[in-house]
Design a protein that fits this description.
Layout: E1 23-29, H1 37-51, E2 57-64, E3 70-76, H2 79-89, H3 96-100, E4 108-113, E5 131-137, H4 145-158, E6 166-173, E7 179-185, H5 188-196, H6 202-208, E8 217-222
Antiparallel strand pairs: 1-3, 1-4, 2-3, 5-7, 5-8, 6-7
Helix pairs in contact: 4-6
Length: 225
């Protein structure tokens, strides 16, 4: 955070309970000519020791654009805390080297109160699956279980988990060396589509090459309860 003569509009906390709380202080600036980036970042780190102790401080992030403009983003409890901090911070010894590296003519300060927030969608749980691929198979002669597990994990990490509708994959082992490949998806159509891609990727083809030809039996199911 830095001090500037720019005035900020009067803000009040939003009444909307879904709005993010607090105030965001956004400060844009450029460093002076000849300022070394590494040393400037060290001075920024040192300044944080004092800023973090100011009343109402919640968090701070420092960003830089490819063009060299810096963004000092600080979250405060309220606008009063942000404005009071702007008065105090210039007197803190730990901040002096940081401020000395900033071009004062480049500083722009703005304060924002939250109006609305949209959390990221939560990924569906595999327990919510609606479609299932169920395949039984045996391994080719000379192939051991360790090879199967390694190839299966690679197929999941590199291919399956990146497919639309995929939720989870399991390998099961039954009697007499029979295995079950089970993939869960958000619909039966998705399960069938994902299975249809197996021949298109090296990782899934490698897994298929471990299977004894003619031993595989594949079925698809739709969840009804």
């Amino acid at each position: 955070m830095t001090q500037t003569q720019n005035s900020s509009p009067t803000l009040s906390h939003p009444a909307d309970p879904e709005a993010p709380q607090g105030v965001l202080e956004l400060v844009l600036f450029r460093t002076k000519e000849g300022i070394d980036r590494a040393s400037f970042e060290r001075h920024a780190e040192a300044s944080q020791q004092g800023i973090a102790d100011l009343p109402g401080f919640e968090s701070r992030q420092l960003w830089q654009s490819p063009e060299g403009t810096w963004l000092d983003l600080v979250r405060w409890k309220d606008l009063q805390s942000a404005r009071k901090a702007a008065e105090i911070v210039m007197t803190l010894e730990c901040c002096q080297a940081f401020f000395a590296g900033i071009d004062p003519e480049s500083i722009q300060m703005l304060h924002f109160s939250g109006k609305r927030q949209w959390p990221a969608p939560q990924p569906a749980s595999w327990a919510d699956f609606q479609g299932l691929e169920f395949g039984t198979f045996r391994l080719q002669a000379g192939v051991d279980e360790a090879q199967l597990l390694a190839a299966s994990q690679q197929a999941v990490d590199q291919v399956l988990r990146h497919q639309k509708g995929f939720l989870a994959h399991f390998l099961l082992k039954g009697k007499e060396q029979e295995y079950v490949d089970m993939a869960l998806a958000d619909s039966q159509t998705a399960a069938e589509t994902i299975c249809g891609l197996w021949g298109q990727f090296p990782e899934t083809r490698k897994l298929m090459d471990l299977v004894q030809k003619g031993s595989e039996k594949l079925s698809f199911y739709q969840r009804i309860q």
